[in-house]
Design brief:
Largest sheet: none
Shape: elongated
Number of strands: 0
Number of helices: 2
Radius of gyration: 37 Å
Mean pLDDT: 88
Length: about 100
């Protein structure tokens, strides 16, 4: 059977801790680089949108435009500001 000394255990723990710290620093460096790259890409896209606009839109359908105008016209005539009083009969039902 192999005998393991406390010195060997200490060296193993030190190497394992060093490897962990190196891996952690490497991971953080990769994450930082990725975040900076993503930030630059987002800034570039936003700059393109601000300078060039979002793009061309399809013109509205004439029937939809007509329907929208009719609805707006009907809504405007009902909201004249007059309050309609709705009365109830003796049984509590609306007339």
């Amino acid at each position: 059977m192999v005998e393991v000394t406390s010195m060997q255990i200490a060296v193993f723990i030190a190497l394992q801790t060093g490897f962990f710290v190196w891996g952690f620093r490497t991971a953080i460096s990769i994450i930082q680089t990725s975040i900076l790259d993503l930030d630059a890409r987002i800034a570039e896209v936003l700059k393109g949108i601000v300078e060039g606009g979002i793009g061309d839109f399809e013109p509205p359908n004439p029937l939809v435009t007509l329907l929208t105008q009719a609805i707006a016209k009907n809504m405007g005539s009902e909201s004249s500001g007059a309050v309609k009083e709705i009365t109830k009969d003796k049984l509590g039902r609306f007339k």
